[in-house]
Write a structure and sequence with these properties.
The chain is α+β, with helices and mostly antiparallel strands and 293 residues long. Strands 1-2-4-3 form a 4-stranded mixed beta sheet, covered by helices on one side. A two-stranded antiparallel sheet has the order 5-6. The longest helix is centred in the middle third of the chain and has 51 residues. The termini are close together.
Length: 293
């Protein structure tokens, strides 16, 4: 079944060390465009995350936000810059001597000096956390697919209804095209009579010959066969379970081309009107296909 390109999903997974919150939003797009927001410490996994998403989603603008919380130890570690502390202390001693101050130097002045005590840089082993991040991402994508499939069912139902109408119109066109020789014979008689009145004797054999020539030149049987084939292909692609949007769009272009040719070949009013109606339906389907992955 086809999938819509729009949807939203959220997933939360808690491990022994971390809690991962993943949100995914998807929008219509001709190609796959992944926008990823992850904590700075995990940027090394960016390409791996994008490859994982592209293996599950083929088309659309995908916005992903991953929040990672450490559950083991929230106490920050600190490191001491001994050289900076010593230099700062010596500078205070020199200042004390210059100003001839006898009081001692308070400890908190040295400890509070910028850069003397600072948070330690902890290097995370992000590769070790990748399996849990992948599970969280996979769970969010599954939830997203559920929403996209549900919307895809509504789109598929609309396609089926519209194509039923197109198939009926194609049958009407096919029935109307079966008597084209008789139709053109009568049209020729009317035109000749209109131009020449009763002054020219009509040659039934020549009129039949000209009518047959016009009917052959305006034959639309090949276009009807190809149009039927395109519709069958559309149904097969729609039910294949594979990404279908691009293929559907191509088939609709081909189907529209067949009806354009049918409209240009025949002068029969009922066929021309039917072609206009069908092309309107094809355009409505084409607009919906832009929402399909």
């Amino acid at each position: 079944m086809i999938k819509s390109m729009t949807g939203f999903a959220r997933s939360e997974i808690t491990g022994e060390a971390i809690e991962i919150i993943t949100e995914i939003r998807s929008y219509n797009s001709k190609n796959l465009d992944i926008n990823l927001r992850i904590p700075h410490d995990y940027l090394l996994l960016e390409e791996k995350i994008k490859r994982f998403i592209s293996g599950r989603i083929s088309r659309g603008r995908i916005e992903v936000r991953i929040e990672i919380k450490n559950n083991i130890n929230n106490n920050k570690e600190f490191e001491l810059d001994e050289g900076k502390a010593t230099a700062y202390y010596n500078a205070l001693i020199r200042l004390k001597n210059i100003l001839k101050i006898d009081s001692g130097i308070p400890f908190d002045i040295i400890a509070g000096a910028e850069g003397v005590i600072k948070p330690a840089v902890v290097v995370k082993n992000v590769e070790a956390e990748w399996p849990l991040i992948k599970d969280a991402l996979g769970d969010a994508i599954c939830r997203l697919d559920e929403m996209r499939l549900k919307e895809g069912e509504f789109i598929a139902g609309d396609f089926m209804k519209r194509f039923e109408g197109i198939e009926k119109s194609l049958s009407r066109i096919e029935n109307e095209s079966r008597d084209l020789s008789f139709y053109y014979k009568e049209r020729l008689k009317e035109r000749i009579s209109l131009l020449a009145g009763d002054t020219v004797e009509l040659d039934a054999g020549r009129i039949a010959q000209e009518a047959a020539f016009l009917a052959d030149r305006c034959d639309i049987s090949e276009e009807i066969i190809r149009a039927k084939s395109h519709i069958i292909q559309f149904y097969l692609i729609m039910n294949s379970g594979e990404p279908a949007g691009r293929k559907m769009n191509f088939l609709l272009q081909e189907l529209n081309r067949e009806f354009n040719t049918i409209g240009s070949k025949t002068e029969k009013v009922i066929i021309s009107h039917t072609v206009v109606d069908v092309k309107s339906e094809i355009e409505k389907i084409r607009e919906q296909v832009q929402n399909v992955e």
